[in-house]
Amino acid sequence: MDATMFSKLRRRIRAMSIRLARLIMKNADTNEDGHIDKREAQKIAFEQEGISADDVNEMVMSVDDNNDGELNAPEFADFERIIRSRAIDTSKKALKVVDRDGGGTVTMDEAKFIAFDHYGFDEKILGIFFAQADENEDGQLD
Prior knowledge:
Number of domains: 2
Helix content: 55-70%
Order of helices and strands: HEHHEHEHHE
Largest sheet: 2 strands, antiparallel
Oligomer: single chain
Radius of gyration: 19 Å
Structural class: mainly alpha
Number of strands: 4
CATH topology of the largest domain: Recoverin, domain 1
């Protein structure tokens, strides 16, 4: 892929992320003003990843290109990208805790530890979640 094709690909991906942001905004924009304000952003970030209000304020300021205190669709797409990035970082840290044997994957037995102790899931519910996440059906989450 040459630079021109890569540029086109990047633009298409960006356009898709903005369209997805607009869809999410329809549900999250509780005051229906067409933007996501800080309160709405805090609710989204907390529900998705448990991110604190102070962190959300910093995140909003970092993507609010026109400095109006609200997020339009392109800005919200960037905000969601930051949330996804934090989710990956959090998951990497959690994997180190849950992966008791250090194998780089999570077995059902290792998942039971976190599911029972931290979330109160029983083995039946965990089994359903685990099966959905185990894409290659090898009994491990990697």
